């Protein structure tokens, strides 16, 4: 039962993404840019954290 719900959720997500890309490519590009910026910020924060740990957590 959970597998079917998961498949349905994935199909709905794919249809939504395709709808956004087709109807407004500029907005879709903005969403991608926001996503990559978030990933970049998270990676930088993790790097800063590990640098802090290596420096003795001071």
UniProtKB/TrEMBL annotation:
Protein known as: Membrane protein
Organism of provenance: Streptomyces phaeofaciens
Q: What is the lineage of its organism?
A: Bacteria, Bacillati, Actinomycetota, Actinomycetes, Kitasatosporales
